[in-house]
Amino acid sequence: MSTDVPQNRPKRLLVTGAAGFIGSNLVHWLLDRWPGASIISLDALTYAGNLANLEDVRDDPRHRFVRGDICDRELVAKLCDEGIDAIVNVAAHTHVDRSLLGGDDFVGTNVGGVQAICEVIKERKSIRLLHVSTDEVYGSQAPDEVATETTALDPRNPYSAAKAGGDLVALAYMHSFGLDVVITRCCNNYGPYQYPEKMIPLFLTNLFEDKQVPLYGDGLHARQWIHVEDHCAAIARVLEGGRRGEIYNISTGVGLTNLELTERLIEIVGKDKSLIKYVQDRPGHDRRYALDDGKLRGELGWEPIFDFGTGIEQTVQWFVDHEDWWRSIKSGAYRKYYDEQYGERIKH
Ligand code: NAD
Ligand code: TYD
Questions:
Q1: In the chain, how many domains are there?
Q2: Residue 141 domain-assigned (yes or no)
Q3: Atom 41, ligand 1: residue with shortest CA distance
Q4: Residue 167 domain flag
Q5: Is residue 302 one of the residues assigned to a domain?
Q6: What are the φ/ψ torsions at residue 54 (nearest 5 degrees)?
Q7: How far is CA 223 from the centre of its chain?
Q8: Structure confidence by residue, pLDDT tens digits, 16-49
């Protein structure tokens, strides 16, 4: 680890969505690698937020968890006034399939929540906002194409449309009011603490129990995959070195069809391909996401550390070793755990 701390490195951070998959990994990453930093974790504890993901940093004097909604301006303002110098907005409603059942929460948090944060920092312009977004805002890419940061937005489902809306709101506040906003757009993540409704943890935990894995359509939809810690490292680089008003794509260039990925998981777990069950396709299912992340690599010198083979094997092992974690989610028991501590869950 370098002993030279970059001048622009934030010291007091507010991480929203910190009890979810990427948020909790980011909190761990920052506490481990930025010894001078302290963090307030804000999370509404929706169905996807799980305090077990932050259990091991519960007593860390550099970390505090607050349950709350990013749409609650008063709360966000109060937290900002504790000397926060950067917000990483990870909070969002994130599952495409859920967004197809009703997009209210998606627009409420992914657009409205971003606006609420911008309104708060409009009065506190020294605070940098890093807004975490997704490759899905560019929509589907043709087989020989990759999206750069200037590719037109073309979201195709309520989740990605709401994410694109949030990005535009953040950029509009940057232009109109001079806020210090940076945006990252990352490809699909895998790793510890991913909620088992997403493809990799759903398929793994089904395979462990010899259950079938539901592959949508012909299984030839393609995604690029990154280990969540590499995503966290990229967020950290953009936080301290990203230029105000800029967007940075984050990827590994590792593209796989869902069928290729499924076969890989089946091989690692040692099960039989007969467990693949082709099911009806997701409506409007984007065929292929692919990013060009040359800007991030060229400007900020970021590179992923994990090769896919190592990262996915470690992830499989993490799920093998954390059976209690995923079983308590699949059974719903984890909800009782935080309901007892924090009262009734808020709806969104
Ligand atoms: P997740 O669903 O695991 O976590 C989201 C967290 O946000 C949960 O803990 C939830 O309780 C919290 N939350 C939701 N609404 C909130 C609100 N109104 N106020 C406060 N907290 C709220 O999602 P994730 O996979 O960790 O994704 C996090 C972010 O990263 C999202 O913005 C997503 O768009 C982006 N992203 C994810 C991926 C991926 O592959 N998972 C890829 C690129 C970008
Ligand atoms: P997902 O993990 O939901 O992420 P995203 O939709 O944000 O890319 O899905 C990844 C890919 O896997 C996507 O192409 C949809 C597909 N998929 C299935 O085939 N079956 C499933 O049960 C799920 C959840 C996803």
A1: 1
A2: yes
A3: 189
A4: yes
A5: yes
A6: -115, 10
A7: 15
A8: 999 999 999 999 999 999 999 999 999 999 999 9
Q: What is the mean pLDDT of the chain?
A: 95
**128 by DSSP, 3-state: which?**
strand
Alpha helices for the chain (secondary structure H):
21-33, 73-80, 96-99, 104-107, 114-122, 158-177, 199-208, 228-241, 258-269, 294-300, 308-321, 323-331, 333-342
User: Range of 298's domain?
Assistant: 12-282+289-333
Closest ligand 1 atom to residue 159 Cα is: 34
Burial class (CB in 10 A: 0-12, 13-18, 19+), 296: buried
Which residues, at least 6 apart from 136, have a Cβ–Cβ distance to it below 8 Å? 96, 155, 157, 159, 160, 163, 286, 289
**pLDDT on residue 346:** 41
- Give the Å distance between the CA of 282 and the centre of ligand 1: 20
136 is catalytic: yes
Q: Is 135 known to be catalytic?
A: yes
* Ligand 2 atom closest to Cα of residue 198: 2
Kindly state whether residue 187 falls inside one of the protein's structural domains: yes
User: Which residues are CB-neighbours of 332 under 8 A, at least 6 positions away?
Assistant: none
For the beta carbon of residue 75, count every other beta carbon within 10 angstroms. Answer: 17
Q: How much is the pLDDT for 116?
A: 98
CATH number of the domain enclosing 308? 3.40.50.720
